[in-house]
Amino acid sequence: MALLGECCSVALAEAGGSHSSHRAVYLQVPKTKTIDIEFSDVKFSVADGRKRCKDVLRGVSGRFLSGELTAIMGPSGAGKSSLLNVITGVQVSGVTGSVGGVSVAAAHRGASGFRKESCYIMQDDTLDPLFTVHEIMTMAADFKLGSSVSTKAKQLVVEDILETLGLSATRETRCCRLSGGQRKRLSIALELVDNPPVLFLDEPTTGLDSSASLQVVSTLKALARGGRTVVCTIHQPSATVFELFDHVHVIARGRTVYQGSALNVVPFLQTAGLPCPKYHNPADFLMDVATGELGDHNDELERHCGHKDWRGERPLVKDQSQEMTDKGTRKAMVLVRKPSEFDRFWVLLHRSMIQLYRDWTVTHLKLALHFVVGIIFGLYFADAGWDGSKTISNFGFFMCTCVYLCYTSMMPAVLRFPQEMSTLKKEQYNNWYQLRTYYIAFIVANIPVQMVFCTVFTSMAYFISSQVADWSRFVMFLSVCQLLSIMAESIGLLLGTTCNPVNGTFLGAILTAVCLLFAGFLVFLSHMPSYLAWAADLNWMRYALEGLSLAIYGYGREPLECPRTEIYCHFRVPATLLSEVGMRDGRYWVDVSALSAMIVVLRLASFVTLRRKVSCNTR
Ligand SMILES: Nc1ncnc2c1ncn2[C@@H]1O[C@H](COP(=O)(O)OP(=O)(O)OP(=O)(O)O)[C@@H](O)[C@H]1O
């Protein structure tokens, strides 16, 4: 990698800001800091499942220059995405060689400066379907430009980028309703907000028709001409699209078989004794050769492409900032200070709140279901709260409440992070925010919602089943329910970040069933074999059940009423139940503390596993 010029901006130099903490953002594609990326002898191997090594990249070298639009091409499985992943630092294990003048390992530790300034638009780039184009762009501007830039200036940046990428007409359209080409352009637009000097794109034209592909690649070319280094992988481009590329790097079976200008492909193949038929798309012919359809010429091509530099003239880069000054246009330059994590926390919180509000399946539907199920529970256990002859049924009500809260909190949580993983990976790679900021914002936004669901269900079930009308007991009961549902959600988050969603939901269901077994309901704590008592001590459901029982029957509750028809009312005195089920010596505060401690441990553990999952390779 080489810095070709200290042309970041005059304003930057005047401000005395370092490149890492300040960046100049123009309201139109500017000439920015220019970065060339050089990589040499890059090798990447993976275990192929039979304890043997498969060489995916076998010593690939090359240079991607600023101002140029580069395509990495090759047959399917040749190693295009792998090369991009190695250069961007997404793939580190099993890789040797150097990128940006330093070894791959050192580059991963942060020695390669271009990575901090580059953005990577992945193939399966997901855009939140709940937001409009304008909203999602505004959020990107808030993340990247922070509060040092006024809202008005941010809006100008957003409008300008939308205009440049031909998205102004869709500004009020929700992302889920955009066409494939518009989605790709929006993914690019999001990353342009803070004007990155390097853009990597994995197959930006996949799934697009020829005119949309042409639009996307033309956009990329315009961005490259603004001084950026733009590199993308691409499959079989049309002749028109192919000609737009300034530089093409072709890989076949992990080796470079051509690197040079798109216009030099035909003369190159001619030199290698492979004349391209007249009226044939050179890109198609090149792919036919690389796939071996015309015989195995890869060794020959590899030799020939090393003999001569097939690269074309370096294109002239447009200095648009200068252009703007010359024309005296309204376009202004904004000096950006890197936003604080605190600023980003508020943006994340705001985003989570909108998501919760707009996704009616997450909030409205669940709220309605908790309300209805709470009523059903209450009716099913009607009178169990005051009637001494139904005390065992009431104990069953506590157990059913625990199981219901566990399942309804745990299962959605298992799917929560896997659903957001691709967005999270992209935003993490592109330095939108730190993972801990995201995690804290998630907790702060989510816990109150969880508490509201739990309160709705518990209140309905509590009062309809005629539990004791004592506010302090109700608060104690509700607090345990809240802790249990947050606890179950924590387990779900941990499972979602350690296993895949299918295994996670299966394990969650099994875990809840085992906890039910050791909770002290099916086998009372007093009847449990002593050598298995430890299992109950580790069981969050046991603490919840005990907490609920003590909240209702502990602390000197008056004897219950019994119907006249009952000749013998065994559980009339509440303490009798507590003694029989082995909870007489239980302490409410111990149960609450145990649940709280487990929540803290599990939330920390899920953060660690989430970080591992986000930072692990794309595969
Ligand atoms: N982390 C990995 N573990 C195992 N195999 C891998 C890994 N990364 C790449 N490969 C293998 O390396 C080969 C090249 O994969 P890569 O995705 O780079 O190809 P590609 O040229 O981008 O293909 P396509 O155009 O079909 O996307 C494939 O056979 C793939 O299975």
Automatic annotation (TrEMBL):
GO terms for cellular component: plasma membrane. The chain crosses the membrane at residues 360-382, 394-417, 438-462, 474-494, 506-525, 588-610. It is found in: Membrane. GO terms for molecular function: ABC-type transporter activity; ATP binding; ATP hydrolysis activity. InterPro entries: AAA+_ATPase, ABC2_TM, ABC_transporter-like_ATP-bd, ABC_transporter-like_CS, ABCG_dom, ABCG_transporters, P-loop_NTPase. Its main location: membrane. PROSITE patterns: ABC_TRANSPORTER_1, ABC_TRANSPORTER_2. The keyword Signal does not apply. It is a multi-pass membrane protein. Residues 37-278 form the ABC transporter domain. CDD domains: ABCG_EPDR (cd03213). Pfam families: ABC2_membrane, ABC2_membrane_7, ABC_tran. Keywords: ATP-binding, Membrane, Nucleotide-binding, Transmembrane, Transmembrane helix, Transport. The keyword ATP-binding applies. PANTHER family: ABC TRANSPORTER G FAMILY MEMBER 28, PROTEIN WHITE-LIKE PROTEIN. Belongs to the ABC transporter superfamily. ABCG family. Eye pigment precursor importer (TC 3.A.1.204) subfamily. This is ABC transporter domain-containing protein. It comes from Megalurothrips usitatus.
